[in-house]
Amino acid sequence: MGCTAEDLVERSIPFVREIRNRTPGTALETWLNEQHGPGTPVYDDLAAMVTEGVRAGWAANIEVDGRRYRRSRIAEPQERLDWFSITAVYMDSVAEFRGQYHQHPYGELNLVVPLHPGAVLRGPNGWCGAGWTAPAPGSHHYPESRGGAVIALFYLPAGRISYDISPPADQDRAAV
After folding, report:
1. How does pLDDT run across 41-65, given as a tens digit for each residue?
2. How far is it, in rounded angstroms, from Cα 67 to Cα 90?
């Protein structure tokens, strides 16, 4: 395919224009999976591009917890993206794995791309294979995966994400 980060940004522009005035949450998650889920041009194109980006080393190339947990910002918030940022995360673990606890001040839209059969990412409505999750504004959680390698391509309104939040006492970090 030979795509670049710029190709992924260009392919994202019509998508963010379509969702820019929608609020992340369960209703948007359902709509995304119905309108832009696996088998649709938006999902299939973005999934192929970010997968190639991970393999080529321009997406999810910064180690957070070794090779099995990586991420990278593909695009900062900018006018042509209606002030969304784009980030890729790669997680690879057969056993349940937790990443860094964080908050979404304005919500988040995640395109979930399993690289292995059975690989899933936990979203606000449970485990998700190929498809979308849409944590609501103000939500906070550990990113979690299991079943193998999975990529999350996420779109953040205004690029807002906060890692300076502590988990509630009842969500102690599991051993990884």
Report:
1. 999 999 999 999 999 999 999 999 8
2. 9
Q: Residue 112: enclosing H or E segment and its boundaries? A: strand 109-114
Q: Report phi then psi at 29, rounded to 5.
A: -60, -45
167: left (phi over 0), alpha (psi -120 to 50) or beta: beta
Q: Tokens 């995360």 map to which residue?
A: 89
Q: What is the value of pTM for the model shown?
A: 0.91
**The listed CATH number (3.40.50.1100, 2.40.160.20, 2.60.120.10, 1.10.443.10) that belongs to domain 5-164:** 2.60.120.10
Report whether 7 contacts 59 (CB < 8 A).
no
User: How many CB atoms are located within 10 Å of the residue 18 CB?
Assistant: 13
Residue closest to 26 by CA, chosen among 115, 163, 128: 128
Residues 6+ apart with CB under 8 A from 88: 50, 53, 54, 59, 60, 71, 72, 74, 151, 152, 153, 154
Cβ proximity of 123 and 29 under 8 Å: yes
